[in-house]
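Slide 14.
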Amino acid sequence: MVAPRKAAFAEESAEVEVLFANMEKLKNLTKKIQGSLNRLETSGKSVQDAIGPIYGNTQRLQTMNSNVDRIIEAIDRVREPLDQRNREERIIRMGPRKVPLQDYMASLDRTTQALGDLKRSNLRSNQQAVAELSTLLKTGTKQLEDVFREILREDARPVEPLHYITKQLPFPTLSEASLSKLRLIHTHVSASFTQTSQTDVREGPTEKTYTEIRGDYITTTLRNLAAASVSTARKTTADAIYKQGTNGIGTYAQGMEGLYLAEYENVCPIFARDEWGAVYASTCQSSLNEFSKTLRELNTHIQKNLMTDCFLGYEIIEIVSNLSIRVESRTGELKRLIADSLKPIRETSKTSLTKLLEDTRTRAQALIALPIDGSSVPITSDTVTRLQTMTAYLSSLSSIMTSLGDGGWSTSSASNSFTSLPALKSFDVGADGRQLFAHYAADMLDTLLSNLETKSRMLLKGKNLQGVFIANNIAVIDRMIRSSELQPLLTSYASRLEGWRKKGTAMYLEAWREPSAHLLDVQYTNRSGRPHSGGAASTDSTAIVKGLSSKDKDAIKEKFKNFNISFDDLVTRHKGYKMEREVRSQLGREVQNIIEPLYGRFWDRYHEIDKGKGKYVKYDKSQLASALAGLGW
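Slide 15: predicted structure.
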C-alpha cells in the first residue's frame, strides 16, 4: 500500500517540477518579448519623429493646391463676364440699324442675363464688370428706344378728323409690322430697364416715349375741332337762343371717340395687359387737358349768355356724358377722366335752372305797361319757348335735376345749396327725370302767371280787361304746350292750368254782373192777384205788365234801359279786345250761358212794357241770342 502511494507522489512531484520549469521558460520568454516591445516602441518613436514633419508638409501642400484651384476658378468666373462683355459690346456698339433687329435684341438679352448673374454673385471683384455691363446695356437700350421712337414717328403725322367723321370711317391705326416691332422692342427694353434701374419707376422709357408721341398726335389732330367748338359758340345776335347742333362740340366729341378707340387698338398689342390702362390713360391725358380747357372756355361763354346759351351747356353735358359711356364700354377706361371735364359746365347748368326762374319773375315784374286790348305779352311765348327748347335736352336735364332734388331749383333751395351741404333728396338717383322736369316747368309757368296777374291788377283798368289778358296768356301757353313735346310731359299741369283759366274767366265775367243785375226783379208771392213765378200765367207778359203799378212799370222800363246800355257797352268792349280765337269763343260762351237765360226769363215777363215799340225793349230773345252768339267769333 505504501509503495504504490510513494510512486504516485513521485510522479506528481515530477510533473510539478516540469510545470515549474515551463513557467520559468515562459517568464524568460516574456522578458524577451517585453524587451523586444520596448525596443520596437523606441524605434517607432524615432520613425514618428522623422516622418511627422514630412506628413504635415504634405497636408499643407494639398490645402494650398486646393486653394490655388479655387482661385483659378474664381479668376475664370471673373474673366467670363469680361469676355462676354467684349463679345456683346461689338454687336451693341454697331447698333440696331446695322445689325438685324433679332440679333441685336438677342445680344441685349445675353447681356441682361449676364448682368443678372453678376449681381446675384455679389462678388466685390465683379463690381467693375457690373458697372461696365450696366453702361453697355444702357447704351443698347437707348439705341432700341431711338428705334422705338422712329417707328412711332413714322405714323404720327396728324390727320384731318373731318374726313373720317363725315365719311364715317374708322381712324387709322398702326400697321401690323409696326405693332410687332414695337411690341418686341418694348419687351426687351422693359427687361433691360428693370436690370439697370436703381429705383422703382412705374413708367418705363418706351411707355413714356409712346405716351408723348401718340399723345401729341391725338392732341394735334383734335386741335382744329377744339378751336371750331369755341368759334361756333360766338354769337352774331345777342338775344338769339342757342339752337341744338349749331356748336362744334358734337363733332369734337366724335373725333375724340374715333381717335381714342383707334389708340386703344394700338396700345393693347404693344404693352402687357397690366400696362394697358396706365399707358392708355397717359396717352390720352394731353388731349383730355385740351378738351377740358375748351369746355372751360365754353363755360365762360355760357355764363356770360346764360339766358340764351344755357341750352348749349345742356347739350354739352349730354354729348360728353354719352362720349364717356361709349369709350368706357369699348375700352374700360377714361370714363371718370372725361366726366371730370364736365364739372364746371354741370355747375353752371345747375345755376341756370334757378336763373331762368328768376329771369321769368324779373321780366314779368319789370313790365311797365300791358296791352290795352288785353292781348298776351311776349314774355309768355318766350317762357314756353324756353320750356319747349329744354325738352330736347331731357337726358342731361334729368341728370341735373336729379342732383338738385325736386324743387332744388327754387331761389331759396339754390341759395342753400351753395352755402350748406345738399339735402338727402339731392341724391335720390331713382327719381323720375321727366317728372322732375314737369315740376320745374309747372313752377316756371306758375311764376309767370302769378306775376302777370299781379301786374294786370296794377296796370289794367277793369276786371274784364284783366280777365281777357290772363285768358289770352293762358291760351298761348296751352296752345304751345299742345303743339310741342311738352304735351306728354305736362299732362299733370293741365288741372292747374284749368284753374288759372277759370280764374281769368271769373275776372272777365265780373263785368257782366251789372247787366245781369238789371235782369233781376222782385216778386211778391203773398200779394193777391199776383201769379206765382214759374206758374202757367207767369209767361203772359200782357197780364203781368197790366198787373204792375205805375212805379213798378217805371222800374221795369229803367231795368230794360239800363240793361241795353250796359249790354251794348260790354259787347263793344268785348269786340274791341284782342282775344285768342279759343278765348273769344270760350268767353262768349260763358257770357251767353249767363245772360241768355236771365234775359229770356225777364223778356218773357216784361217785354210788353213798351207794347212792341222798341223804346225800352231793344232786343227780343232771338236778337239777343244772335248778339250773344256774335261774341264768340
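Speaker note: Residues 413-431, 524-538 have pLDDT under 50 and may be disordered.
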